[in-house]
Structures are given as structure tokens and as C-alpha cells.
Design goal:
With 507 residues, the chain is an alpha/beta fold. Helices cover 31% and strands 27% of the residues. It has 14 helices and 29 strands. Strand 23 and strand 24 form a beta hairpin. Helix 1 runs parallel beside helix 2 and helix 5 packs parallel to helix 7. The longest helix has 25 residues. The relative contact order is 0.13.
């Protein structure tokens, strides 16, 4: 099998990332040499690759579905929002300035050359490449400079499937309208549809799908049911009600309740996914001081805008609630930007994240933070709470520690990192909670400090849980998609002579 395919969506969060992961996993289980590709991602959830760069976390998950290590080749352009109007640009894994929405347009022609060349290399190195679009191809105001949807499809002659989330409502209109607003050369590559997150009797949907095919000339290649056991999400696993994951019942009498502060520019919030794998551990994102009442563990996650998110924390009253929680001896964990907020001061002399200046932290640790112009990236190893651990670092802030400050982590070269003062823990390392032994020790400490009757599982494996989720995605693809049609599209490209759908109101 040789070829490529683009999965586009009617909207952001329609299911593109998980469908790509599922198709990749389904192909890999059949022995196909498959790789993922997303030309341009916009996300503050990222990982450090084995080749030392930075890519979207979704593409790292898709790589795992393929049985591959994450690589900058899978996501050549990453935009990391810094504010409502600006984003940091990461090209081939390295920071390459910041842009506004308007100034980014000027860079698109050069970036299109980068992503098309990258796709060509991947196609030469692997039998199959499954590409993921960005947002929606129906954003016709952006079409002239598009590098991730039909711009990429046209450049690479990629057959394209459009996926829509029926749980949002209006999916048939979304699917039809997506095709109808495209110019004829783009429509010629749109080869079919997938309906995602369907609940109920498929027979009730069938007349609508038949009418959609009559209107567009394109079949629906599958209806993927809503899967309650599927909680993994390639960007984040946050439910609509703020919950993370679907943990099993507690092994002891009590639940452990984890409150994760949903910062405006939260980064790598998926760090807490591993907690949600544990029986009896309830994880929720929160946005108000009252949400911290009764929490056994409060987590301050990473942030792409630490100083402004800290200001938001203060303006909402959450800073006072976090301080009261910690000063009462209750457990608090800060990760990356959330760890930096625990410092006495945060100094950004070069204006990396905000206007140059000196800012007061929460003052819970005897250390200060200074922002360096260059980003610190790494895949470090060490020990923490008596366990061997690995993680990854993505930050500009550098800690300046007072002598004798208790460290959470000892790196493999013996350096001190992070903070451990009993009920308050902090680290720059993402992914620490994915280390099973470390996570169990943290939860045992939380249970002890909170006085909960909790038995910590000795068998939960985050890696095994994630693998099972990827296999569940592949099972959904195999059971509910027309896989023979997928293979034809991959090998033969878009069918010739697909109907051109005129836009509404056209003569």
C-alpha cells in the first residue's frame, strides 16, 4: 500500500486528530509503514521530540499510534497562541519569531514550500502518510494563503475526507456547506464524509446521509458512534463539563478530588491525564475560587503567558484561594508555568512573554524566575520521590534557587530541580505524572495529607492505558468506517469526475 490522505473537518474539534490517530493505528496493526502529518497546528499543548524540537502533542500521539517516536517532520509549523492577537511561530521544532494574524499571511508562501517539501520527504520515507487539516477548509477568507487544508491537498494531490461532529448539531448542513463554499479545484479532491460522535439508531440518520450524497455526489464513509470509554483526546482530554478522563471507582472508601486551574493560556494541560487514569481520582478543571473548596490536590498547570495568567489568577480571587489552600497544609502542585507562579519574583527583562519588567510571584518557594530569550527544550531523566523518572522541558523561565531549597527532582547529572516542601510541589518538567511510580507516591502523599481513606493502585500503567485507548480508536475505525474505500483513496487518490456543488444562490 502506498499513498496519502487528508482528514479535514467542518470545525475545530470535529474529531480530526483522533480520526487520524485511529486510522494510523488501524494501518499500523496491519503492518503498514504509516506516519502522521499536520502541516500547521495551533496549540499550546506540545512535546519535545527525540530530535530536540517541539511539535503539537496531537502529532506525538499520532506518532505513537504508528509505533514511531515523535519527530519535527510530523508537524513542521506550530503556532502557540500568546494572546488573542499574537502567536509564537515554531518552524521545524524551533522558535522563529512571533506574528499577528495579519503579519502571518506574509510568511505563508515560504511556509507552504516548507510543508510541501516536508510532506514529500515523509511520503518517500513511509508507505502511507495520513495528514490532518487545521480548523476547517470552509474558512474561505483564509483560503488564498492556506497551507494546512485544501492548499496542502492541492499541492500534494491529496484525496480529502471531511469529518463532522454530530454531537454539536447541524452536521449535515456543515458537511454540505463545507463542500459548497470551496472552489471547483478544491472540491475535486473532497472524496467523502465521516460523521463523528453519533448517538442513537443509525437508521434514523440514513435518509439524511442518502440525501447528502444525492446533493454532493459524495458518500459518507462511516458513522463513528459516541464511545463513552474513549476519553483520550489528541489535544486535550477535557470534557464539556470540565472533567478529565473517566476513572474507575475508588479502591478505598474515599475519592481523591483534584482541581486543575484552567488558566486562560493553559499549556500542556494534558499533564493531568495520568491522574485521571487512576481509580478513585476525580480530576476537574476549575475557574472560580469556590471550585477549590474540598479539593484534595490543586494543580497549577503550564502556561504560555505566565505573567498575564498570574494576573488573571489574582483578578479572579483564585490566587488568594490557592494561597489559603497551601497555607492550610493542603497539597498543591505547580507544573512549568504553574511552578514559576510559586516563585517570589518573575523577571522578564527581554519581554519574552510580556512587557519587560519585574513581577511578584505567589511567594510559596525560596526561588526566583528569570526569563531567557532562548527557549529551554529537553528530554531529561532523573529521580523524584525515590523513583526513576523522565519528562520533557519547554520553557523560557529559569529558576534561581536559594541554597538548601528542597528539590523535587534530581537530574541524571545530580542537579536540583523543582520544589518539594511537603504539601507544595513544583517542577518545570512536563510528563512527570506519566511515570507510574512517581504518580503513586504523589497520590499517596495527597491521601495522607488530606486524611482520605484511599488505596492507591499498584497496577495502573499510564502507557498501557494510552495504548488501549489507541487500540479502541483503531477498533472504531475498523468497525464503523468503509475501510476498503479508505484504502482505495490512499492508493488511487480522489475519484475522477466528482460533482461540483454550486454555492447556495448560484445560478
Amino acid at each position: 500500500m502506498h499513498g496519502a490522505l487528508l482528514i479535514a473537518g467542518t470545525t475545530s474539534d470535529a474529531g480530526k486528530s483522533v480520526l487520524v490517530a485511529g486510522i494510523c493505528r488501524w494501518l499500523a496493526r496491519q503492518g503498514v509503514d504509516v506516519a502522521p502529518f499536520k502541516a500547521q497546528n495551533m496549540s499550546n499543548n506540545s512535546v519535545v521530540t527525540t530530535d530536540g524540537g517541539e511539535i503539537g502533542r496531537a502529532q506525538a500521539l499520532q506518532a505513537a499510534a504508528c509505533g514511531l517516536e515523535p519527530s519535527v517532520a510530523f508537524n513542521p509549523v506550530l503556532l502557540k497562541p500568546e494572546s488573542d492577537r499574537t502567536s509564537q511561530v515554531v518552524v521545524h521544532g524551533r522558535v522563529d519569531g512571533s506574528v499577528s494574524a495579519l503579519s502571518y499571511r506574509e510568511r505563508k508562501p515560504a511556509l507552504l514550500e516548507i510543508v510541501t517539501a516536508g510532506l514529500a520527504r515523509l511520503r518517500a520515507e513511509h508507505d502511507v502518510v495520513i495528514c490532518e487539516g487545521a480548523g476547517s477548509p470552509a474558512e474561505i477568507n483564509l483560503r488564498a494563503t492556506d497551507i494546512a487544508n485544501m492548499g496542502l491537498a492541492r499541492a500534494g494531490s491529496l484525496p480529502t475526507i471531511v469529518v463532522g461532529d454530530i454531537d454539536r448539531g447541524g452536521v449535515l448542513a456543515h458537511l454540505f456547506g463545507t463542500v459548497a463554499v470551496l472552489e471547483p479545484a478544491d472540491q475535486a479532491l473532497v472524496s467523502g464524509f465521516v460523521v463523528n460522535k453519533f448517538r442513537g439508531d443509525p437508521a434514523l440518520l440514513e435518509p439524511g446521509l442518502a440525501q447528502l450524497e444525492r446533493l454532493t455526489g459524495r458518500p459518507t464513509l462511516g458513522v463513528v458512534p459516541f464511545a463513552p470509554d474513549l476519553w483520550i483526546d489528541a489535544e486535550d482530554s477535557l470534557g464539556h463539563d470540565g472533567t478529565v478522563g473517566r476513572p474507575g471507582a475508588p479502591l478505598g472508601r474515599d475519592w481523591l478530588r483534584v482541581a486543575v486551574v484552567r488558566l486562560p493560556r493553559v499549556s500542556n494541560g494534558t499533564d493531568v491525564d495520568a491522574l485521571a487514569c487512576e481509580p478513585g481520582v476525580s480530576v476537574r478543571y476549575v475557574t472560580a475560587p469556590s471550585d477549590l473548596v474540598g479539593a484534595d490536590l490543586v494543580v497549577l498547570p503550564g502556561s504560555k503567558a505566565t505573567v498575564s495568567d498570574l494576573a488573571w489568577l489574582r483578578s479572579t480571587g483564585l490566587a488568594d484561594a490557592v494561597l489559603a489552600h497551601a497555607r492550610a497544609g493542603r497539597p498543591l502542585l505547580g507544573i512549568c508555568g504553574g511552578y514559576q507562579m510559586l516563585a517570589r519574583t518573575i523577571d522578564d527583562p527581554h519581554g519574552v512573554e510580556a512587557a519587560p519588567g519585574h513581577h511578584e510571584g505567589l511567594g510559596l518557594g525560596a526561588f526566583d524566575v528569570v526569563f531567557d530569550p532562548d527557549k529551554h527544550l529537553g528530554n531529561p531523566h532523573g529521580t523524584a520521590l525515590g523513583e526513576d523518572v523522565a519528562g520533557y522541558e519547554i520553557h523560557h523561565g529559569r529558576e534561581l534557587r536559594d541554597p538548601g531549597l528542597p528539590a523535587l527532582v534530581r537530574t541524571s547529572d545530580g542537579a536540583a530541580e523543582g520544589l518539594d516542601i511537603g504539601n507544595v510541589l513544583g517542577t518545570h518538567w512536563h510528563g512527570l505524572l506519566e511515570n507510574d511510580g512517581f504518580r503513586r507516591r504523589v497520590l499517596a502523599r495527597v491521601a495522607s495529607l488530606s486524611g482520605r481513606d484511599v488505596t492507591i493502585s499498584r497496577t495502573t500503567s499510564f502507557a498501557v492505558t494510552r495504548t488501549a485507548q489507541l487500540d479502541l480508536l483503531a477498533d472504531l475505525v475498523e468497525a464503523h468506517l468503509d475501510t476498503a474505500a479508505l484504502i482505495r483513496l490512499i492508493e488511487q487518490g480522489a475519484p475522477v469526475g466528482l460533482r461540483i456543488v454550486p454555492p447556495a444562490g448560484a445560478p
